[in-house]
Amino acid sequence: MNGTIYQRIEDNAHFRELVEKRQRFATILFDYYAGSLYRLYFTDRPSRPAGWAPR
Q1: pLDDT tens across 9-54, in order?
Q2: Helix axes 13-42, 2-11, angle to 10 degrees
Q3: How many CB atoms are closer than 10 A to CB 47?
Q4: Confidence (pLDDT) at 42
Q5: Which pLDDT score, from 0 to 100, does residue 7 have?
Q6: Do residues 20 and 26 lie in contact, with contact meaning Cβ atoms separated by under 8 Å?
Q7: What is each CA distance from 4 to 17, 19, 20, 27, in whole angstroms?
Q8: How far apart are CA 2 and CA 37, in angstroms?
Q9: Closest alpha carbon to 35 in 47, 27, 45
């Protein structure tokens, strides 16, 4: 019985659309996150402006 219910859900066009949107959102979010890490760790720019000193 559970198999038929799951199959009906997976065959539903609205469900497939939601899965595609979720995958697209996850890809965009991962790209943003990976790009942020790349910018933080692999750029040569200092993280603080010149002349900044802790008090």
Answers
A1: 999 999 999 999 999 999 999 999 999 998 888 877 666 666 666 6
A2: 70
A3: 7
A4: 81
A5: 93
A6: no
A7: 20, 19, 22, 31
A8: 43
A9: 27
Q: Return the pLDDT at 47.
A: 62
Both tokens of residue 18? 């939601």
Alpha carbon distance 6, 12 (integer Å): 10
Q: Which two tokens stand for residue 23?
A: 């995958």
Three-state SS letters, 16-52: HHHHHHHHHHHHHHHHHHHHHHHHHHHCCCCCCCCCC
Q: Determine the residue type at 49.
A: P
Output the pLDDT for position 4: 92
State residue 43's pLDDT score: 77
First-to-final CA distance of the chain? 68
